[in-house]
From TrEMBL:
Entry annotated with the keyword Oxidoreductase: yes
Domain Reductase C-terminal, residue spans: 319-402
Protein's name in the database: FAD-dependent oxidoreductase
Cofactor: FAD
InterPro entries membership: FAD-oxidoreductase/Apoptosis, FAD/NAD-bd_sf, FAD/NAD-binding_dom, FAD/NAD-linked_Rdtase_dimer_sf, Reductase_C
PANTHER family documented for this protein: APOPTOSIS-INDUCING FACTOR 1, RIESKE DOMAIN-CONTAINING PROTEIN-RELATED
Keywords, comma-separated and alphabetical: FAD, Flavoprotein, Oxidoreductase
FAD/NAD(P)-binding domain sequence ranges: 2-299
Gene3D superfamilies xrefs: 3.30.390.30, FAD/NAD(P)-binding domain
Amino acid sequence: MSTVIVGAGQAGAQVAATLRKEGYDKPITLIGNEPEPPYHRPPLSKAFLLGPAGETALHLRDESFYRDNTIELRLGTWVTGIDRTAQKVRLTGEALAYEHLVLATGARPRPLAVPGADLGGVLPLRSLSDARELRARMTSARSVVMVGGGFIGLEFAAVAASEGREVTLLEAADRLMGRPVTEQVSRYFADAHAERGVRVRLGTGAVELLGRRGEVTGVRATDGQIHAADLVVTGVGVVPNSELGEQAGLAVDNGILVDAGLRTADPRIHAIGDCARFPSAHLAAPVRLESVQNAVDQAAHTGRRIATGEARTYRELPWFWSDQKGIRLQIAGLSTGYDQVHLLGDPADGRFSALAFRAGRLVAVESVGRPAEHLAARRLLSSEIELTPVRAAAPDFDLKTFAA
Ligand code: FAD
């Protein structure tokens, strides 16, 4: 009997690595539908677009790692179903038995549901194959419209503007990165991108993509304006790949639902990373996170649990980074539901931290250009030390000293 991991991405590869590190000596099969070995996605919206970095630099591990650790890597292979009674996963023309099954299937771009979304030159950005096409199209593009002002949209817009493209960014909500960051940080990024030449249009969505001979030529926005474009990138969120769980009768609601130990209601099946919704110890509510830290830490937790049998509650602090061409945002914690913000430093200097409080408790710290404060925030939010808004507002307050 073996462990089968579905999804050879950030989380899947880490489960396999942790299993071996923890001394697991049974067979491990890591199955992924993409043709490439597990790779880093973050560079796809950043340095990779600027080339000429080779694709092997993206790989999480050398192929020899899988060989040396007897991890069977099956690429270009879809898992099409789970038979829970027989404890088998279905691949095309084959069934594979498991003792433990880890679903690490990630997420896919939410399609832009407007007429013209199928025109040439309209691209999402999730996979290496998306990024290859985008990089090729970037070379000849003059006017670019980015639909969606989340992390990936802003990273791409910053790269395109730095390369001299005319960039318009449409965001239907009234602020950028609306879900994961505080208003103060949204405002800073809207100004910073505008200063770097991105035409940021808030409260403005795309209603139609216009084209000629099958290729996109522009975007009609909700305010009636038409923005010329020979390249449109869509970044309007993702949909978790939870179908395998759903078809197998597992609970699914914006992700495969797992318990505090990251296990589904079936004790043999775990779900982790972008595809899983788990009860967060830091939010006291179920949450689905899309970040490298979340994928890696949940994978390490699950690998340890399978290898050692140790059942613990998953408690890792969520943290995140986004590089927007010279502006680095680092987030510790989750600001969801915040009701008070205190700033350390001045956004006008391009270096500051926003401390987000909920009901008088520090819940997140969003730092721009202040890496040491970010690390201090991670220490603080992982500890039992309480920081009140009053203490944070004291003139002599220093986050690094307080968290030391
Ligand atoms: P994935 O890495 O998506 O891996 C899931 C894999 O499973 C995929 O290869 C998928 O095709 C495969 N799969 C799905 N269904 C099946 C099936 N039925 N059979 C076989 N295979 C299947 N995070 C950060 O923290 N910082 C960043 O700066 C950052 N930048 C990003 C930039 C981009 C462009 C993108 C797309 C993401 C970025 N992220 C960033 C997010 C981060 O990369 C993801 O949160 C992380 O990759 C999630 O890992 P995962 O293993 O859960 O999913």
